[in-house]
Amino acid sequence: MTSPAQYPIGTPGHPWGEAEVTAWRARQTRQRSYQADVLSVIEALRPRHDVVEYGRLDYQPDSYPLFAIKSRHWRSDRPSVLVTGGVHGYETSGVHGALQFVDRHASGYDGKVNWLVAPCVSPWAYERVHRWNPYAIDPNRSFRADSPAQESAALMALVAPLRDGVCLHIDLHETTDSDESEFRPALAARDGVTHVPGDIPDGFYLVGDSEDPQPEFQQAIIAAVAKVTHIAAADLDGEIIGSPVVAPGVINYPLRQLGLCAGITDARYKTTTEVYPDSPRATAEQCNAAQIAAVCAAIDYVLR
């Protein structure tokens, strides 16, 4: 067996300090445009929906306004739905799936639910196709009080006034081959631990809340997505990414304990989607469609 190559930054067994984070940040280059891909789309949605700026990330020399899109005529007697994407900026279909849901489907739920969509929580990482923010912090482990991630803190502040009224939160993610080739080795190097290679599941799966798993809700989403793309199978140990498969395409995490985005409200129904864009059996369009199908199925289940 070949030993995994040492990550090019840091000293094995020693967590990163400021110098290592600075060296890591210097390796990150802008590969796409938040303005062109996200902000221009949001601007085009303004005539039909309300748009709110809920924060700004000042990462010199760059500055990123944070926007959410919401249904008009919000009413407290309707169920409220939260959709988040791009918490990990490199997970492309989470961003574009959220925007396409608003463009193509959100109006159909007006008058039935209040909906709020934050399509790109981490724009710096979106542009650099990375998981972390500039300080090598993972926003999706940082949704907690006194968060070290500006992205997480801004979203929590947006949601705080609505938190008790949200009945559904669906957070859109991807699991990619680069998780194993880059992000998990970088995480191990950052934390000064040994990277243990793992597998990348081929297909779509969900991460429910182990504290309140709602299995029928999760399976309703799986059934809808299975019409669009394939569902990830369990490995030989009956697991997906090291967690037991509790139903086809479903694993559970303690969302709030881990500081995950899907745990930021008291919603009865919450889940994290995981699309696999590197599969030879899926296209980028299918990945976006899978995210949209998941959102629509989740809302339809709540309304049922």
Number of E-type strands:
10
* Alpha carbon gyration radius: 19 Å
- In CATH terms, what is the architecture? 3-Layer(aba) Sandwich
Name the strands of the widest sheet in spatial order: 1-2-4-3-5-10-6-9
Helix content: 25-40%
Order of helices and strands: HHEEEHEHHEHEHEEEEH
Q: Report the end-to-end length measured between terminal Cα atoms.
A: 52 Å
Number of helices: 8
CATH homologous superfamily, by name? Zn peptidases
Give start-end ranges of low-pLDDT stretches.
none
Query: How big a fraction of the residues is strand?
Result: 15-25%
Outline:
globular
Could you explain the architecture of this structure?
The protein has helices at residues 18-26, 34-45, 92-104, 123-128, 150-159, 177-191, 215-225, 284-303, and strands at 50-59, 62-70, 80-85, 114-118, 166-174, 205-209, 239-240, 243-244, 250-253, 269-275. Helix content is 32%, strand content 19%. The protein contains eight helices and ten strands. It has an eight-stranded mixed beta sheet, sandwiched between helices. A hairpin with a 2-residue loop joins strand 1 (50-59) and strand 2. The protein is globular, with a radius of gyration of 19 Å. The mean pLDDT is 96. The chain has 304 residues and is an alpha/beta fold. The protein has one domain: Zn peptidases (Aminopeptidase, 3-Layer(aba) Sandwich), CATH 3.40.630. Belongs to the peptidase M14 family. Its cofactor is Zn(2+). Residues 30-304 form the Peptidase M14 domain.
Quick overview:
By secondary structure, the chain is α/β, with parallel strands linked by helices.
